[in-house]
Give the backbone structure.
Amino acid sequence: RVVRNRRNCLSAGGLKGGIVHAAGEIIVLLDMDTSVRGDWVEKLIEPLLENDDVAITGSKLLYPDGTLQHAGGKFEWNGFTRHLQANETDGSPVETKPREVDYVCGASIAIRRTLLSQIGGLDEYMPFYYEEVDLCWQAHRLGCKVLYVPESIAVHHESASMGKNSDRYLFNYHRGRWRFMLKNYRLRVLLTEVVPAEIRWLRLADETH
């Protein structure tokens, strides 16, 4: 079923609008710049069917050349995110079982509908790159598990629409990072830790250029 929006709702808004029209207790989101392998969706939703405490699952993502792009993700204290095992050779070390992670990439992700109902759905104020990070943060806050599922595999042509490391990409990434921190971090942490560290980081970046 195709849902046509009257305007560009950007990533989070478009997904949120589509979810309203979707049926079922598990919602699967797949980016347009991906291709999937084998029983991708069956493996992705399996942990959600078997474990009530799991709220989100995410696929193993490969670059087009077959190297790993994402094997689950980790939150950094300054809002940056890190893809685990990025650029490693797929299959070394071999993984077969889902494992808990801080977050999973939204390029291929399954979400329990009850979680979306509890938090009010995806946050439209995070239109690019951090909507899934915020979603996983909210799941952890509610005591739910987020799992990386290595047997669910997708190839991700990352940032095909924006261009990897383009000015547009970097602007949207850091805008999402700051919106995520402003929403979820305590004011004291922002003022005493994040802002001073950000100023130091920007000064260092300026000096190196």
In short: The helical segments are 10-21, 40-50, 113-119, 131-141, 167-184, 187-208. The two ends are 49 Å apart (CA to CA).
